[in-house]
Design brief:
The protein is an alpha/beta fold and 142 residues long. The protein is built from five helices and five strands. It has one domain: HUPs (Rossmann fold), CATH 3.40.50.620.
Length: 142
């Protein structure tokens, strides 16, 4: 088994990501690998509120996500240059960031509930099927 050099943690900042981060950190320490972290915000459908636009909500989500990611990343010595807040399809953005940054392991959480998605979760399954590198899926217990 080869050593990992660059590990990307795919973080859901608002849904039990601590076990995912801890596992990635442990693997990075064992391998002497650098860590990066990504959180992806999916576009909101048209909301229909007259007082507030979906763009305003998305900008606020970006701001809150950045603050939360910086807080989590600081605990694990992940520099700001390797912290990514992206906007778009979760699967596609994780794969893109991994590819652009020459990642050799993606660590992602899953709490899927039915069918093949029960085993992996739809996002985790999509990443496993599309990634050019190894993917470690951490089961998140609700």
């Amino acid at each position: 088994m080869s050593k990992y050099k660059h590990i990307l943690i795919a973080i859901d900042l608002f849904n039990h990501s601590e076990p995912v981060i801890k596992k990635a950190y442990e693997i990075a320490k064992l391998n002497g690998a650098k860590l990066s972290a990504v959180h992806v915000i999916e576009p909101l459908p048209g909301i229909g509120f007259e007082m507030i636009s979906s763009a305003e909500i998305e900008m606020e989500l970006m701001k809150l996500s950045r603050q939360q990611l910086e807080k989590e990343a600081k605990k694990y010595d992940i520099p700001k240059t390797r912290q990514f807040i992206e906007f778009g399809s979760i699967k596609h953005e994780i794969i893109r960031i991994a590819s652009e940054n020459h990642v050799d392991l993606i660590v992602i959480g899953s709490h899927g509930r039915h069918g093949l998605n029960y085993l992996l979760g739809s996002t985790a399954n999509g990443v496993v099927q599309s990634a050019d590198c190894d993917v470690l899926v951490i089961r998140i217990k609700n």
